[in-house]
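Thread: Newbie trying to understand structure tokens

Hi all, I'm a second-year student working on a class project, and my supervisor (Dr. K.) asked me to get a predicted structure for one chain before our next meeting. I've only ever worked with sequences, so writing a 3D structure as a token string is new to me. If someone could post the tokens and maybe explain what I'm looking at, I'd be very grateful. Here's the chain:
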Amino acid sequence: MLQLWDITDANAPTRIASVDDDKSVNALAFSPDKHTLATTIGGRLRLWDIKQISALSGHVQQWSCYATGGGLSPEEWLAEVPGIAYRRSCP
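---
Reply by user tm_fold:
Sure, no problem. This is what the structure looks like when written as tokens:
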């Protein structure tokens, strides 16, 4: 899990967002404007909109749909949720 913290006040850091993933984060970097976080997780590069992450924190379905790029495909569903019939998971 990757956690983003606002450390403007070093005496009272505040977690502003979390990025859950089942693999370790290998590397990360912020864009020069600090609005995008780039990560490599399990050999894949992913760009995260920091404002989007903060807005979705605490909203499991919306976050899941955002993180998967619109939900699981039938193939991904079969691999990750075996034994349960496929259903579209995001609107």
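A couple of things are worth pointing out once you decode it. The radius of gyration is 15 Å. Residues 2-58 form one domain. Feel free to ask follow-ups in this thread.
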